[in-house]
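ugh ok fine here u go
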Amino acid sequence: MPYGQTNTSAIMRKIFITAACMAMFMASACNNEAKKQDSKVSDTTQQADATVPDSQNVNKVLSSYIALKNELVKSDAEAGKKAAAALEDELIEVKGCAEAASMAREIASAGSIEDQRKAFLTLSKDIIPLAKGIKTGQTTYVSYCPMANDGKGGYWLSEIKEIKNPYYGDAMLECGTVKEVIQ
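structure:
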């Protein structure tokens, strides 16, 4: 075969592999298998009509997630419930994020700030890969607190570099470090 045809085959193979990898990423970004099996979104029609993650809908998810994180930093459980409900609405519109939407619903119905923070640990495990996979044009920081989750550690996303810990609020507001910057 002439050189040009072989090169075209190699390029097509790379495009196919890249597309397959992106499809696998999108399928797993919001679907953390470590979640409880009973936390399913009840409105499957809404999820069926959801759109594939793109910079616009992921940007909305991140804005709602950051609003929730900020309410947890302030230890405001009632405002956290409202922010979590708004986040659930954004997540249900993104294909593959039904389980993350269920986690946001759990935060919205949690009885205490401690329960909200516990569920936020799991929610963050889904939202961080989504933020890493779709470029939104905004700088986001992946922060980590080694004390969260009973000393097992916990990650979260922030819009600012300064540490404002959502897992402890005023009790340990500055506990943590920035682990990664997403551009």
